[in-house]
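Q: Hi! First time doing this. I have a protein sequence and I read that you can turn it into a structure. Is that right? Here it is:
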Amino acid sequence: MRPSAPRRTVLRISAGDLRWKFNQGEYERTATSCTSLTGSTPLRVVLGPGAFGTAESMRRHVDGLRARGIAAEAVDLPRGRAERAAPVFAALRGQAGIVAGGHSFGGRAASLAAAEPEAAFAGLVLFGFPLAGRADERTAHFPRIRCPVLVLNGDADELSPIAVVREKVALLPRGRLIVFPRAGHRLDGSLDAALDAAASFVRTLRDA
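A: Yes, that's right. Below is the predicted 3D structure, encoded as structure tokens:
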């Protein structure tokens, strides 16, 4: 008997929603600290900025996750190709409980690191994944990512048409997509809702 395919979830939400459903589990915003479901290893989110950003430009994301009880920090990335920035995340793979990710370029760099055979991230959180007219090239590594992945994109993202995002997220073995109506690439106006979703996602993760 063939095993059933991994279950993927696509949600469409408004910025005012405070409750999030992933598969059949329902989660609410809380102010408690986040640990893995094993209860032994704390989870920590490490985010990279967009192509022209710095760790400081991710302050809203970091502060927002911390306010929701999630340990979070941002890192600077070298500019240029995402492949050049991926080693910053790869250097974290020896640490348990890392949820990698970032906005646009930073998220893609994290996803490239997560696709490496020795990667052992607890999960990925990708804000505004950038396709930029090269969807096949920029997602060719998706089938090799083994950890749970949350993709947060707006349906008005000028770099990533949402129909193509849906198609490419389906390549992720353990991928979830949340779509924000009328939100652009930076998720302006929907960032609080995206951070709510990211925090809820992190709470569902188990250590790799």
